[in-house]
Amino acid sequence: MSTEHLTAADYAAIERELDALRDEITADLGERDAAYIHRVIRWQRGLEIGGRALLMASSLPPAWLAGTATLSVAKILENMEIGHNVMHGQWDWMRDPKIHSTTWEWDNVSPAEQWKHSHNFVHHTYTNVIGKDNDVGYGILRVAPEQPWHWAYLPQPLVNAVLAMFFEYGVALHDLEIDKICEGTNDPDETRAKLREIGRKIRRQWGKDYLAFPLLSGPQFMTTLAANFTANVVRNVWAHTIIFCGHFPGDVEVFEEERLDGETKGEWYVRQLTGSANIAGGRLFHLMTGNLSHQIEHHLFPDLPSNRYAEIAPRVRALCEKYDLPYHTGSLSRQVTSTWKKIFRYALPGPRRSSPAPAATRPEPVAA
């Protein structure tokens, strides 16, 4: 579905309506929202303690399975619903120094400060713009025909499977901008500083998961180490799946850099709408995805608390229907299948296609 039918007045109206929705939710934030994030953190910490306690007897298969499963859930919650969203600034309005984007360091090998630059700033500013948003294929995958084909893309189904298993390391390297390093256009001092920080974070994570806790389990050292490794892989595969299903399935659009020329806030909103996809599910499913199953709403309002996305989703969908815009959504199985089809298809040569023009008549920039 193209956006060519939108007029300058439509873009301005979309901007007003979505700004008003954001203002309404922001004004309503309060005690129930704060209680929600405190409750999730308590549950996550309880699950982690319980999982690690079970792994003290990890040589027993039932304890290993139960401990690994519990620790996996704890790591997913910390990564998705807590770490990702806290570092987006979704809870900064509480003024709680312990739950704040400037102080939170997540259970992940990617340093928080580097992630916030590559994700919060680069990705959310240039969402799905080829050449600007490094999340388009993560720099190693071809996920759209607009990306020129190269023989190096041929093994990308296997590359993507490996990326899923070790996703946290791919995320950790993201802010290095490998393409600039290969071109020789990076700042060597800055690159070395980032690598040192990544190294420190990896040593910290490995020391915790692969040394300290296995040692605490005594003779169960190897089985506990294997459980911690498995929990990290489960968390990585889940995070990769949810993120890819929110960005690459079906008819989700990518854009050329020209799209950014003179882009207004209304056009930015529309780019988020057409460049994102949701995943259908229940409350527990949405919790386990960090509410990134509401990827459309997250891209529109990345710093609104995640527990509000389900509430505003019907109104965002109604706006899309009003302006004849797509609202990409589907079951997890459908979105996974669609995404992997793209991974396999675009590993092979294919014709380039041009992204549709953003509008027949571009609106004038709205004054701040």
TrEMBL record:
Coiled-coil region(s): none
Spans through the membrane: none
Organism: Actinomadura gamaensis
Domain of life where this protein originates: Bacteria
Pfam families from the UniProt entry: FA_desaturase
Domain Fatty acid desaturase intervals: 63-329
InterPro entries attached to this UniProt entry: FA_desaturase_dom, Fatty_acid_desaturase
Protein name: Fatty acid desaturase family protein
